[in-house]
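On clarity, I found the account of how folds are encoded harder to follow than it need be. What matters is that the chain and its backbone geometry are given together, residue for residue. The format is easy to grasp once an entry is in front of the reader. For illustration, here is how one protein appears when written out as sequence plus structure tokens.
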Amino acid sequence: MYILNGGITSNVIRSQITKEMLLSMSDVESALFLALAHAFNETNALTRMLYWAANAPTRNDAEEHGRFSMMLLLIQILAGKLYEFWGIFQKQFFKTKLSYDLEPLLSGEPADALLKLKRYFNKSPNSVKIIRNKFAFHYSPQEVSASLPGVDDQLELYTDDQNVPNNLFYFAEVILAHEIASALGQTDPHKALEGLVEELFDLSLCFSQTSDGLMDQILERQKKKLPQREAEVVQFDSLMHFKDVFLPWFTYTTGAHEPATGSA
């Protein structure tokens, strides 16, 4: 990961949720609340990483191939996590009947986002489900190798005698990308993946908005029962801009395995 610029000042609000507040929730409420918070953090991190990888600037074919490979990996992981995120809604929100109480309280962006999620995941098949079930969390060598006869791309690899982390067996990602495109009913893997990036960004935003709305409603119910602790402002004096951060494949790695110096 590298950064173009820095020095931007920004603030966040730090507050606390007490253990008493969590214990005052019903079992189904606390299970949903904690699951949403964890899934939110994971998809937020993965969406950032995918954005930084997909938008990494490239100066030659090698860097473009590295960008494509990093993007392909993160697409698979994020798609898998988004599918599991929807599983939380199915098991902890709809099946428990919490949706009867909480969904009518949603309005604006959270309500619109939940409707979009319902429409997407009620559609079968959808890209997230296909990628999760066929590619995200396991390897299918026979299926991937079966795509080889239809691959016309140059099958390239990059090796570095000094720095193994810079090795890239790009040919494997090319063949996998063809198999993913085929599974999605498309012929051009590059267009398929670029389209998937936008699709996953939209879904991630919907999950974030819906989760934020539901967690707010759950907390509001608890605030009536327990006293609150005051929030405080945390200021970052030198924060890099989101769009100035990139996640490239090839980096200068000499000394990367040496122990870091200085205090943690």
The longest strand covers residues 232-239. The chain has one domain: 17-228.
